[in-house]
Amino acid sequence: MIDGAPEPPWLGDDAIDLAARILSSHHRAWGMPLVAGTGANRSHRQAAQELFTAAKVVLAHDGSEDPRLIYTNRAALTLWRRRWPEMVGMSSRLTAEPGERRARSAALAKALGSEAIGGYGGIRIDSHGRRFRLEGARLWTLRDRSGHACGQAAAFDSWWWL
Length: 162
Description:
By secondary structure, this protein is an alpha+beta fold. 33% of the residues lie in helices and 28% in strands. Helix 1 packs across helix 2 (44-53). The chain is globular, with a radius of gyration of 15 Å.
């Protein structure tokens, strides 16, 4: 808290821990950092801020049967035209229009089975019904401190409106 103002939600203790899990799981799956400069010499808080402000879109959902979004960075919030409290907690399947959900689900299952996949593309829909295509996305499994799968994350920086 600065000058009595509440912390932004992406800098709360749970969100900082989640950002660290997203970053470490990405490094585990891909052998490289998700965001430049978020190595061992950064505090978890600073890494969380850098992940939130990264230019690439980053989202994560939990491992439930109908996965719920547990993290979105500013680029994702801007693209989907939602605020943090509207997007975090939302069923992640709702990021895609109904006709695209089966392909999305298959890609997520493939990523879970192989730890990570790259080059994923698909059509998504923002909060106002505007469609966009994403390309070159990375999908990877989130791991807790014990190494157990606890969700999935995605990152991409190539997309365009349809």
